[in-house]
Specification:
By secondary structure, the protein is of the alpha+beta class. It folds into two domains: 5-41, no CATH class; 85-186, no CATH class. It has six helices and six strands, in the order βαβββαββαααα. Strand 5 and strand 6 (95-98) form a beta hairpin. Helix 1 (12-23) runs parallel beside helix 2 (65-73), helix 4 (141-148) runs antiparallel to helix 5 (152-166) and helix 4 packs across helix 6 (176-186). It is elongated.
């Protein structure tokens, strides 16, 4: 097969590039070493659990790079929604329990005592109401969390939540203003988060 362009890697970037070039009339070949396209962006089931292989969450699906690519291709933006709360779990030591998929659902988990749930409410409200310009430049997520709560369970959860939402470890070293803004856009979004 003759081609104008060969793209190495059939992950999201490779597929998007190939599709955009093909739309412009180029003959494109995408080479992927895996057994399916998508790179690390796939979900699989193992022993009744649904697991993500790599980072591919789509927040506020009508905006962002993927939405832009889909519009340029003249394709519908994929619909997505919240995870079934009974299928979203969090492990804390040897305990495992449903955690929910929306900010308020965290308050129903059996992982936290009543007192910890009250501290969690205060912490979630602190994220929601935080003024980004009031966060001192250079403040890390860990430092900001420590300023908001002395509760160890809430601190552990805050860092785990930041890790899952940023695909960064240690998430505690992320810029606090960036992480807060990200959570304000996603945890409290009016549209679907998936």
């Amino acid at each position: 097969m003759k081609s104008d362009v060969v793209i190495i890697g059939g992950g999201m970037a490779g597929l998007a590039s190939g599709a955009l070039l093909a739309k412009q009339g180029r003959r494109v070949v995408v080479i992927e070493k895996g057994n399916q396209p998508g790179g690390r962006a796939y979900t699989y089931e193992e022993r009744g659990f649904t697991l993500n292989y790599g980072p591919h969450a789509m927040y506020t699906p009508g905006t962002g790079p993927l939405a832009d690519v889909m519009r340029r291709l003249g394709r519908p933006i994929p619909a997505c929604g919240y995870v079934d709360p009974m299928r979203a779990y969090w492990a804390d030591g040897d305990r495992l329990a449903p955690i929910g998929a929306k900010a308020h659902q965290v308050l129903t988990t059996k992982l936290f005592s009543i007192g910890e749930r009250m501290q969690m409410i205060k912490f979630m409200l602190a994220i929601r109401s935080a003024k980004l310009d009031a966060v001192a430049p250079g403040t890390t997520w860990r430092e900001w969390v420590e300023q908001q709560t002395g509760d160890r369970a809430v601190r552990r959860f805050a860092n785990a939540l930041a890790t899952v939402n940023s695909y960064t470890r240690p998430a505690g070293e992320l810029d606090a203003a960036w992480q807060i803004a990200h959570f304000q856009r996603t945890l409290f979004a009016k549209d679907a988060v998936g």
